[in-house]
Write a structure and sequence with these properties.
about 240 residues; mainly alpha; Arc Repressor Mutant, subunit A; about 5% strand; binds zinc ion; DNA binding; Tscrpt_reg_HTH_GntR; GntR family transcriptional regulator
Length: about 240
């Protein structure tokens, strides 16, 4: 089994465990669907009551959300929805534009048939989520597509950094996105898979660069109106 496959299996297991946690899935979805604004306090007692689960399950869910960079945990102050500043958002995308085109080049040189098949299956799932208007799920899956490419490149340290940047991007895109069209659009990801299949390193690098520049250019760093809704209203 290749390293890429082992990692894919590991992350599937991790995903399978964590998707059983209703606090993780419910809050993640509410954040990515823009129902929970940045900075919203996430009180453990409210979450336990809303989801009908123990405080232990609430804490496990919140820790996984913090690992995904969607939630900030502070000692004695509890959890709140992460609140990336425009500057941080810009830096995250600048870092991705530096790292990911090179990573796509390397991935194109290494991609085998199993890798290409895994990417195509993943892209289908992503497009199905978009077609069903499951915007939160579609956003998470498109981020995962970028992580898979970094894993195929097999540069572990860079892949870890990209994974972190992609997690932070999901929230940034949810907060600052301006276009009504799809985020990582179908065409871009399919063209990248085609380039990987042909082992065309130059094309993969260029496609990834233009894809990220396009994503970045669709972000508008203005803060939306604050809401007077309660946590329960926002989660419902
Ligand atoms: Zn993309």
């Amino acid at each position: 089994m290749s390293i890429t496959q082992q990692e894919a299996n590991f992350s599937r297991r991790f995903d399978a465990d964590i998707v059983q946690n209703p606090v993780f899935t419910g809050v993640e979805r509410a954040i990515l669907e823009q129902r929970l604004p940045p900075g919203t306090r996430l009180a453990e007692t409210d979450l336990a009551e809303f989801y009908g689960v123990s405080r232990t399950i609430v804490r496990t869910g919140l820790q996984a959300l913090a690992h995904s960079q969607l939630v900030t945990l502070r000692p004695n102050r509890g959890a709140s929805v992460a609140n990336p500043s425009p500057r941080e958002a810009r830096e995250v995308f600048e870092a991705r534009e530096l790292l990911e085109p090179r990573s796509a080049r390397e991935a194109a040189l290494r991609a085998n048939r199993a890798d290409v098949r895994a990417l195509r299956l993943h892209a289908q799932e992503e497009h199905a989520a978009m077609a069903n208007n499951e915007s939160g799920r579609a956003l998470r899956l498109s981020g995962r597509f970028h992580v898979m490419i970094a894993q195929i490149a097999n540069q572990r340290t860079i892949a870890e950094i990209i994974e972190n940047l992609v997690s932070r991007s999901s929230l940034i895109i949810a907060l600052y996105w301006t276009r009504s069209s799809t985020r990582c659009d179908e065409g871009c990801h399919n063209a990248l898979i085609d380039a990987l299949e042909r082992n065309d390193a130059g094309e993969a690098e260029e496609l990834m660069r233009s894809h990220l520049v396009e994503l970045h250019s669709a972000l508008r760093f203005e803060v939306g109106p604050s809401s007077n809704l309660t946590l329960k209203d926002m989660l419902s």
